[in-house]
Write a structure and sequence with these properties.
By secondary structure, the chain is of the alpha/beta class. It has eight helices and seven strands, in the order βαβαβαβαβαβαααβ. β1, α1 and β2 form a beta-alpha-beta unit.
Length: 254
């Protein structure tokens, strides 16, 4: 059974892999045996790369800004990972941003910025990686959504819309690519201790309200989301297509 989760020899690209959930996933993939390339924007990747190399795996990093990404930029990111690692077997679309503001006041510019990163880049990177995976007849694409892919949240209309949308994209790509050897699945994390939830965790009233709703009674650590990514990237998930793995401490069950 352990061999089903073994990623030895696999080559993975994790977007936003220098911090938060992305870093947790990148490190877990490396610990499972994969070489890992990651993208970063503002968080320096050196510490993450050192941890990847400390478990005997190859690491690489490229700076990338996913706002207004186009086809050429997406192809460059995928090409960097493939060249640096000697191939690409796994893509984890993790990079994302959030903007909190009353919906009546939210500027169109902010709406478009969130959708650009959280949806457009996911589509473009999946398309670029998918071309390579289709040519080789195999591959794993994991899209990080959110529990807000099933809910509306508060004061985050663009974020919630984007996370709903990537679940639709997961299913659409599954329908096309499952017959050709590519597994496309999603993860829906709950409230996790990352930069995106810092403002919520710093607000005593909002934090208390959230924690009272979570049956587990706490926010997740980024490493606790990573196991789902290892599973979906492994042979253990060979028959998972278009699935959404929820890791939320029971939030959606409440």
């Amino acid at each position: 059974m352990a061999n089903l989760f073994d990623l030895t020899g696999r080559k993975a690209l994790v977007t936003g892999g220098a911090t938060g959930i992305g870093e947790g996933i990148a490190l877990a993939l490396a610990e499972a045996g994969a070489d890992v390339a990651l993208t970063y924007r503002s968080h320096a990747p050196e510490d993450t790369l050192a941890k990847i190399e400390a478990v005997g795996r190859k690491g690489a990093a490229v700076k990338a800004d996913f706002v207004d990404m186009d086809e050429a930029a997406a192809s460059d990111v995928v090409g960097f990972a493939s060249d640096a690692l000697g191939g690409l077997d796994i893509l984890v679309n993790n990079a994302g941003i959030i903007h909190r503001e009353d919906s009546s006041e939210m500027p169109l510019e902010e709406w478009r910025r969130v959708l650009s990163v959280n949806l457009d880049s996911v589509w473009l990177l999946s398309q670029a990686a998918g071309k390579q995976m289709l040519a080789q007849g195999s591959g794993k694409i994991v899209i990080v959504s959110s529990v807000l892919g099933s809910q509306g949240g508060l004061r985050v209309p663009a974020y919630a819309s984007s996370k709903h949308a990537v679940l639709g994209l997961t299913k659409a790509l599954c329908n096309e690519w499952a017959p050709q050897g590519i597994n496309v699945n999603a993860i829906a994390p709950g409230y996790t201790a990352t930069d995106n939830t810092q403002a919520l965790r710093d607000d005593p009233d909002r934090s208390k309200t959230l924690l009272e709703r979570i049956p587990a009674g706490r926010f997740a650590e980024p490493s606790e989301i990573a196991g789902a990514a290892v599973f979906l990237a492994s042979d253990a998930a060979a028959y998972c297509h278009g699935s959404v793995v929820t890791v939320d401490g029971g939030w959606l069950a409440r």
